[in-house]
Structures are given as structure tokens and as C-alpha cells.
Amino acid sequence: MSDESAAAISATRRDWVTEHREMYLKSGGSQGHIVDITAVGGRQFATHCLIKYQGRKSGKTFITPLCYADIGGEVVICASKGGADHHPAWYLNLIELPQIEFQIATQAFRGIWREPETKERERIWNFFTDCHPFYSDYQESTDRTLPLVMFTAHEEIPVFTLSDATGVRNI
């Protein structure tokens, strides 16, 4: 997918992503965790988490909602950017950090992250795309391998709030 195509997708989703993030944050996670995304090829009960991270250039704090799956006690997300030819900013920032902060529904955690490789990655990819089928379309639209990021909770932390984010990134 060209950067122009990705920008067009981003523009059409920008309002939805902003509204989703704000609903999740304002409700303390009681809303926004499970969302019907059948309109974009997803499931009726699609699960979403929030990740919080520092911008590697700006130093600002960002909070991004993402589809996730839980496999073997680990959370898995995909750095798809809708199938764009380059990685999303959240992923580029995350790979610079040793830990991840994430929220699932009404609980937030600090933990460690990793990227599965080879046969494990293939198994996780198959599971993830079974949960969120449209990621297969994203993969088909780009030459890059969409990264999978897995994380494990190590410490419970307070849920995220709108005021935690000092920067705003829509996708």
C-alpha cells in the first residue's frame, strides 16, 4: 500500500480513533475495551487495549488504542498501520523503550514486551488473524512483514487518563 493510500485510510479513521480513545480514557476503561468493528471487517466483540509510550523525538506521552488478542497469558498487538509501507509511530517509539505500559478494560499494567520469531511468530500470527481477520488484508497490501508485539504484565499501575497524554497521535 502506498503512503498516499495509508494517508487516505488514516483520514477516514481519524475521528473514530480519537472518539474511541477518549471514550476508553474518560470511562476508566469500562467502555472502549470491546467494540463492534464489523463495519471494517472485524468482529462484533473485538477487544482493544491502550498502550502508553514516550515519543522518541518529542518526549511527549502518547496513548494509542489497538486491537489485541490474549494468547498463553500474553497480550499480542500488531504494528500494521492499516497495511502502510512503513511502521506506525507507536511501534518505532516502543522499540526504543525497555518496558510497556498498557491498559485492558479497567486495569493498567507496566510490563515487558517482545517480538515472537520464526515458528512462534507464525503460530501467533495465525491466532491473531483468526481474532482480527482484517490484519491479513493489511499484510497483503504491503511488502513489509507486519510486526507482532507481545507483552506480559509485571506491575499493576493506575488506569490511564486523558491528562496523561501530552501528545496526540491519531493512528
TrEMBL record:
GO CC annotations, alphabetized: plasma membrane
InterPro entries xrefs: F420H2_quin_Rdtase, Split_barrel_FMN-bd
Pfam families registered for this protein in UniProt: F420H2_quin_red
Regions that span the bilayer: none
Reactions catalysed, as given in the entry: oxidized coenzyme F420-(gamma-L-Glu)(n) + a quinol + H(+) = reduced coenzyme F420-(gamma-L-Glu)(n) + a quinone
MF annotations from Gene Ontology: coenzyme F420 binding; oxidoreductase activity
PANTHER family: DEAZAFLAVIN-DEPENDENT NITROREDUCTASE, F420H(2)-DEPENDENT QUINONE REDUCTASE RV1261C
Family: Belongs to the F420H(2)-dependent quinone reductase family.
Protein name: Nitroreductase
Organism in which the protein naturally occurs: Halioxenophilus aromaticivorans
